[in-house]
From TrEMBL:
Gene3D superfamilies: Butyryl-CoA Dehydrogenase, subunit A, domain 3. It comes from the Bacteria. Residues 46-157 form the Acetyl-CoA dehydrogenase-like C-terminal domain. InterPro entries: Acyl-CoA_dh-like_C_dom, AcylCo_DH-like_C, Diverse_Acyl-CoA_DH. This is Acetyl-CoA dehydrogenase-like C-terminal domain-containing protein.
């Protein structure tokens, strides 16, 4: 027999673990993996995304729109990365969790664009569902990455400026 309070306690414990690893993964991505080998990994990712964008720009109206949105997001990622890595690590990593989330959104958008390209001219229900889901992601989810990367790029320090005494 399971009691509601037990389930709430378990869920609460999992959330704190998730929050901790989320922060560590952000620090690891921006502080260690991105600058590794002079940014070769990020450059390779951006090159692969650029290749998909180039294919999408000649594939049709919706693909061109997706390509423009994704290109804008990759440009924002590049600017935010440069800004974060141009200052001392303690300052540049302030918003590493936002960087992690935004980078993830950009990668997922790239995967959706690649899937839409792979559909070609298919007109079946499965293809229509894929296209609609991609549209949702590009219109509702990808813009969140731009907001997060703007915080990273301007080296926002609001969380850092909070004082323990205020709590």
């Amino acid at each position: 027999m399971t009691y509601d309070v037990e389930q709430l306690y378990r869920d609460n414990r999992v959330q704190s673990i998730h929050e901790g690893t989320h922060g560590l993964q952000g620090l690891d991505l921006l502080g260690r993996k991105v600058p590794m080998k002079d940014g070769a990994g990020l450059k390779l990712l951006c090159d692969r995304i650029a290749s998909t964008i180039a294919a999408a720009e000649v594939a049709g109206d919706r693909c061109r729109v997706f390509a423009a949105h994704l290109s804008e997001a990759v440009g924002s990622l590049t600017r935010a990365t440069d800004a974060a890595l141009s200052v001392a690590p303690d300052r540049g990593l302030d918003n590493s969790s936002a960087y992690l989330e935004a980078t993830g959104h950009i990668v997922v958008a790239w995967l959706w664009l690649d899937q839409v390209l792979a559909l070609g001219d298919r007109g079946d229900a499965f293809a229509a569902g894929k296209r609609q889901t991609a549209l949702y992601f590009f219109e509702w989810e990808l813009p969140k990455a731009l907001t997060q990367l703007a915080l990273v790029e301007r080296l926002d320090s609001i969380p850092r400026d909070m004082l323990d005494a205020w709590f």
